[in-house]
Amino acid sequence: MRIDVVSLFPEFVAQCAAFGVVGRAVERGLLSIHGTNPRDFAEGNYRRVDDRPFGGGPGMVMLIEPLRRALDAARRAGEGPSRVVYMSPQGRRLDQAGVRRLAAEPRLIVLCGRYEGVDERLIRAEVDEEVSIGDYVLSGGELPAAVLVDAIARLQDGVLNDTESAQQDSFEDGLLDCPHYTRPVEHDLGRVPDVLLSGDHARIARWRRMQSLGRTAARRPDLLDGRELSKADRELLQA
Length: 239
Ligand code: SAM
What we know:
The protein is 34% helix and 16% strand. It contains 8 helices and 9 strands.
């Protein structure tokens, strides 16, 4: 998969390609991340990328033309059509299902705003969807873009090792993940639950499922709203 990030600070997002799972995805050739800076497409000595908002008020607005040229350049840099995503607090809130959908695209262009945001006409003409990472406002789209890139990278086939499989992560099956423990068995902070030491895989799977259901009910009951639980899950939840 190829992701082009259009940003005034493209190095910011490229940094996340240097580490951990995203780094591995890039190293293995499963993901490539490219930056395009709208300033490189701005005119005049000052290479201006923003201007004052019509109607007055505080802040600046990103100009259409440098962004449009940067998006065109990003489009031309790869092959095939590309979905354009604008990181915006006004977008649809990102969840694991949304990440899965975007991770299945062959190409993405991720547009990062700054200042008060982007001229609305560019959004209407060039953007396929707006994506928010939560109901709070950051000063730029680069951190949100890095969040999206990371979440997408770990879903690319061949990126995660078996032991890190995304299948058991929170939200994958609509529930929160179960708790995890590692050595030592005994610690002054507590003992590892006996069931995990039993070697009885069926019992362990049942316990994990029960923990997932219980945690989800306690911490995120909204995830269970409208969900039809199986008889076995209902029994585990009540156990
Ligand atoms: N005036 C805008 C508003 O209230 O909707 C906020 C602009 S914000 C200061 C600048 C840029 O940061 C946005 O254009 C967007 O790219 C990015 N941004 C800020 N918060 C975000 C969020 N929660 N999710 C995704 N992008 C965000």
